[in-house]
Amino acid sequence: MKKEIPLYDIVIVGAGPVGLLLSVSLSRWGYKVRHIDNRPVPTATGRADGIQPRTLEMLKNMKLKSKILAYDPARVFEVAFWDPAPGEKIVRTGTWASCPEFLDARYPYTALLHQGLIERVLIEDLEKNGTKVQRPWTITRFETNHVNPDYPVEVDLKNLDSNVTDTVRAKYLYSGEGARSFVRDQLGIKIRHKDPISHVWGVMDGVVRTNFPDIKMKCTIHSDHGSIMVIPRENNMVRLYIQIASSTDPDFSPRKTATVEEVQTAAKRIFQPYYCDWDRVEWYSVYPIGQGIADKYTLDHRVFMGGDVCHTHSPKAGQGMNTAFHDAVNFAWKMHLVESGFANRDILSTYEVERRFIAETLLNFDNKYAALFSQRQPTASEVSDAHKHDAGETENEFVKMFKASCEFTAGFGVAYNGNIFNHGPEHPFQHPLIITGSPQLRPGRIMPPSNVTRVVDANVVHLENEIPYNGAFRLFIYAGLKQSPKKGQHQALLDLATGLTGPNSFYTRFASAHRKLDNHHDMDNPHSSFFSLCLTMAAKRPEIEISDLPALFQDYAGRVYADDRKDMRVPNAPASAHAKMGLKEGEGAVVVVRPDGHVGVAVRLVEGPGTVEALEGYFQGFTVPEGKAVTKSPSSSGLGGGSEHVKAQL
Amino acid sequence: MKKEIPLYDIVIVGAGPVGLLLSVSLSRWGYKVRHIDNRPVPTATGRADGIQPRTLEMLKNMKLKSKILAYDPARVFEVAFWDPAPGEKIVRTGTWASCPEFLDARYPYTALLHQGLIERVLIEDLEKNGTKVQRPWTITRFETNHVNPDYPVEVDLKNLDSNVTDTVRAKYLYSGEGARSFVRDQLGIKIRHKDPISHVWGVMDGVVRTNFPDIKMKCTIHSDHGSIMVIPRENNMVRLYIQIASSTDPDFSPRKTATVEEVQTAAKRIFQPYYCDWDRVEWYSVYPIGQGIADKYTLDHRVFMGGDVCHTHSPKAGQGMNTAFHDAVNFAWKMHLVESGFANRDILSTYEVERRFIAETLLNFDNKYAALFSQRQPTASEVSDAHKHDAGETENEFVKMFKASCEFTAGFGVAYNGNIFNHGPEHPFQHPLIITGSPQLRPGRIMPPSNVTRVVDANVVHLENEIPYNGAFRLFIYAGLKQSPKKGQHQALLDLATGLTGPNSFYTRFASAHRKLDNHHDMDNPHSSFFSLCLTMAAKRPEIEISDLPALFQDYAGRVYADDRKDMRVPNAPASAHAKMGLKEGEGAVVVVRPDGHVGVAVRLVEGPGTVEALEGYFQGFTVPEGKAVTKSPSSSGLGGGSEHVKAQL
């Protein structure tokens, strides 16, 4: 009797940050995930710990932020610099904001807690959605073949306890194995080292008692006895990073190590004249690290990799877990849009293009960042210049670089280049209504945050988070001020609704098969699981009657907003959410935001068919052409009402 | 063999809001609690549901707010009024903020979710601290006698499943049994009815589908077919209150009832011309309710009562659970301060005085509130006047009353009268440095919220929440601007520290026996479990060096703040937290805040011994005189390092 081979949408190898967030995403969207990890238990403590401001926003959008903050992470608002002073002392030479005011961040701090707690939140979420990480399992073989064209990846798995083996087939294989990757090795993909210098780092988490005044701040301490980086942690802990060896040392060995006591003794010497004793050590590790980047993230668009498999760098800037999270999200929505019959398969190539570009930027930054710390210390006046909201002509090279660094480390510098998703001058489709050159609405970047009042319940809300992370494209419609929003007189809005709901529009083509059924309580996807709409009117809440709006928007009653909140960043704007998007009084727009929160394209909202024409052209760039739409749902049916998508027959 | 009688600090009867929050407080502070409830399981759904802005602040201070908000309650920001219109219709005649801008609230909304979820959060918290609610147990007898003078209350308990009985002794018995109370009946305490009119209410929780536009808002709907109150709830639910009978009806019976279908039919008629259908009904109840208040909350200061045992009123204003919570907190800290040897036993009389006064205010308000809704509808212009921050001379009687109502329903109108805790002109101790007549620092009221920067880690924090709810008096020290905060030149601060740490000061007298032991990581109570200090300097964060401060404040390193944040309410103030307390530039103060967040007294901070003299006089009003201090800890030892308090020998 032939054993039936189990079929999965995806096999995910590794349950670190990248594997877990990918698993969370796909499990939420109803995919059948086989997820393994070769460690017998999840991370207990230590390892990565920094969640950057932009990552916090993304976790908020996924409704995971409050669960992570419930563990009371340390919050870093400022970084302090300490330098050698006469008499074998150290002295504070400056402090600066880790996410300065010129960055428009919801959460202008880095949250620090150990990776195990973060993993716990993600594991709970994916278990709630029916996926369980199997441990300790490893991957022993994989190949892409044509035995079953729907599930082209064949994978051999093995339980490291029982030695039981299992062969499965999947649509995709994703490696989040970390720096040492079986999958990458098997594919023969090389790691390229950007910087020939590598280092051995010691890292120690523990509770110290000290009179060093900045022990609750992130600090870089340079002393005549060596350097150390201090990072506050949850539960009164502190993390110390200490460089144990560098390949520039004459006797360098990547195997060089140091005991706990040696590191503590070194730290005591660096902290002088302050004392520093240990109550307890929670975690200690020594590891060599080089800067490396994988040549490819995939060879065949079936077997993919992300996270530390593809890029390694120093832990100094706290970017590792953040970059891994964004790798996972970037892959998740693209795979989803292909597998659910919305987008052409070739969009998968943008995963490597976008994420490898960010990894390269990260490595370049890592070099510069290291130099910034080790070569030249900023003066107090340079630091104070950098903090000004509008530094103007006083900016020197250092300040400029610092600004760019802050934006990057906070996560707001992630800017994808133009491609089929991120509209730009090289995009094959052009239209006069597409907004170009706006500093606020830059395709490839995230949109600025804004507060608005939800009409239906008068709640003050974060507009950018009103559409949750649900795999859909987001159409943020700014109605402008041209006409009274009352009594259906807003012709541009009426024309937009007419165009979107027209028989052949991109919006109608991907309407859910169930869309004529019950959508009364579904404010996110009443018509299509591929689109979520948000309508923001430049009016006061009591002036807006949802029953006067075109029928399309009445189905989104819970996603209609009044732009009537004051914003300190645009204090004189009559409609601050419009103003923050760079829309002048009277101007309306439709901002298309990708499922990961990055702007795709922004189109002016005008009377007539032009606005929808421009949107149509953009979506035709990557959606499945008419007649080719996949008519089946993802293999699991966990999606609820809107899970099956067919070409609607209208 | 004689059976040993179990001894408890307190027996709590009833696990509704008042009993649970009392149990949470005392369990956290290490008391041995016997807690019973006669229901076999906790509340499953329905019942009380409204958490008012001030209660949210209190729950935040207890670190319970985020756990409650994790259940995603509905948030009410505005109230809408609907009135009859020609043609058997209803029409919206106005809306207003439920917590208008003139109230300086951190959380300007009412959170709505069913009592069971709120109870779950409290039950988890008390179980974490070693108390378990026993069910189904009831109280069958109690008496206060002298068999064991340390545990004067003898209580018979009975398990309603097994009929097992148990006799225990306790220091206190607290009844949170609800409107029908065995304890109250046994004590022969009468309920007095303020208003002779009583009503029968129907209340229904469920999911409706309707085109009524304000179904997500709190609404009062008057129609020609009757009246209804709409309250949005968690999980897409809505609560409808409908008055079924009134004692003013000619055929009134308190036993009058109505079926689910009858109420639904009545609602459909009232909602016309909007449709209203039910997806499901989650909870339905009909209950007669009258306004009543107990004559006494205790007879002997050993057996106490609170919550619905002492006061009942209409559910309209959503005050029930909130008042119960404040009853619990008010009793908890007073019992704690007596039992831990800090305060004289006679302070327990202030529990009834303070809380019965609030209950009376609530009942008076309840009458007026009902009249406000049923007699006269506000015009749109009246409503809009009331919303202005500074309404000036356009205020009419109605607007004034509305303002007062908002303050009260939001919880900010709770103002305890002058007594031994709340300094005022009738207080036996007077001192010229005591601040009088300040609109911001009114003894008996809570202090205004403010944002400051914590020096030690540069975190922007809510100053009023920096000292958690830990049973201690809070000394908020505002250093003023008179001198540079650097280099120890602040003489007034130095004199304050010297005075507080002097050998016979109130602060030193109640120093913890363990205070010379390890206080390195205890920022809340490094010296004494009865006092927590917060020092706010009118300076920028980098200007403040904690090592330059008097030693007292160095032990509170984590409780030193820079008053360097902008506040929209005092945009031009050089130090906004100072300004929000009514302190002019250069003025300093010590604001004594009771363990429940209400201001006790505010004293000017000046050079010399005067400030500490004034504080000493205030605390001598209720602290145990020298030589009488209790030398033992609460019977359980769950308090950690600072749990035992002895008279320090200095």
Could you explain the architecture of this structure?
Chains A, B: It holds the Pfam family FAD_binding_3. The structure is a homodimer of 650-residue chains. Chain A has 650 residues and is of the alpha/beta class. Chain A has three domains: 7-73 and 113-190 and 295-358, FAD/NAD(P)-binding domain; 191-292, D-Amino Acid Oxidase, subunit A, domain 2 (D-Amino Acid Oxidase, Chain A, domain 2), CATH 3.30.9; 451-642, Phenol hydroxylase, C-terminal dimerisation domain (Glutaredoxin, 3-Layer(aba) Sandwich), CATH 3.40.30. Chain A is 25% helix and 25% strand. The first copy, chain A, has helices at residues 17-28, 53-61, 65-69, 115-128, 182-187, 260-271, 320-339, 349-374, 380-387, 397-410, 491-500, 506-509, 551-554, 576-580, 610-620; strands at 7-13, 33-36, 50-51, 74-76, 78-85, 89-97, 110-112, 133-134, 137-144, 153-159, 165-175, 191-210, 218-223, 226-232, 238-246, 276-294, 303-305, 311-312, 451-454, 460-462, 473-478, 531-537, 560-562, 589-593, 599-604. In chain A, the strands form four sheets. In chain A, strands 6-5-13-14-15-12-16-18 form an eight-stranded mixed sheet. In chain A, strands 1, 2, 8, 9, 10, 11 and 17 form a seven-stranded mixed sheet that branches. In chain A, a hairpin with a 5-residue loop joins strand 10 (153-159) and strand 11. In chain A, helix 1 packs parallel to helix 7 (320-339) and helix 9 (380-387) crosses helix 10. Chain A is globular and about 75 Å long. The interface between A and B is medium-sized, with 33 and 34 residues.
